[in-house]
Amino acid sequence: MSAGEAILNLLFPPKCAFCGALIDPAGEPGPAGSGPEGKDGGLCPACRAALPLTAGGERLRRVDGFPCAVALRYEDMVRRGVHALKFQNRPQRARVFARYVAQAAAEQFPGGFDAVAFVPVSRWRSYWRGYDQARLLAEECARLWGVKAEPVLRKVRNNPPQSSVKTPAERRANVLGVYAVPHPERAAGRRFLLIDDVVTTGSTLSACARCLMDAGAERVVCAALAGAAR
Ligand SMILES: [Zn+2]
Predict the structure, then answer these.
(1) Cα 48 to ligand 1 centre (Å)
(2) Annotation: CATH topology of 52-227
(3) Tens digits of residue pLDDT in 154-194
């Protein structure tokens, strides 16, 4: 650890991205190859042991024909972590979470995209929150790959939150006409990895992926931090 890192750790002690517990920066690194957390941690030992990584078929979903890599199951500890990412000012969680998204996407779509896009939130919501979580995840993933996260999608109509809408048909109807690609030339002929935080029925991701395809994208693949049971 450099002197600068030591001072930063003193001023901003590293906390577990999921439960917020303080992490000993000099503590045990995870076993080699145990996951994308690597030696710089970001998870407390209890959360690392309990992390509900997806496996087998749940690691790749299809949303309306688009493949979607899913890193984690949307269980209690993940729900709390995502909630904290949304509502507490802890964007460093995004760095930890993004490594899991990036790993799941890299496994499913090796070399399969030119740019990273993300599901946008309304300007009203990002104003109150100061940032938006899908964008943070996308920027971190893009940084890991050395490509760019691009705000090619725009939310052009406000809709009730998907969590307030119950049936899959209502969820599909709720996202109709909500998203757009204002500059189709920025999407045309390109292959996108489209990122969101949580995928449930996939209505939001598929509405966004369709907008990119309608704008002329060559291919869209998706990745989400967590997948809720359908
Ligand atoms: Zn923890």
Answers:
(1) 7
(2) Rossmann fold (3.40.50)
(3) 999 888 888 888 888 898 888 889 999 999 999 999 999 99
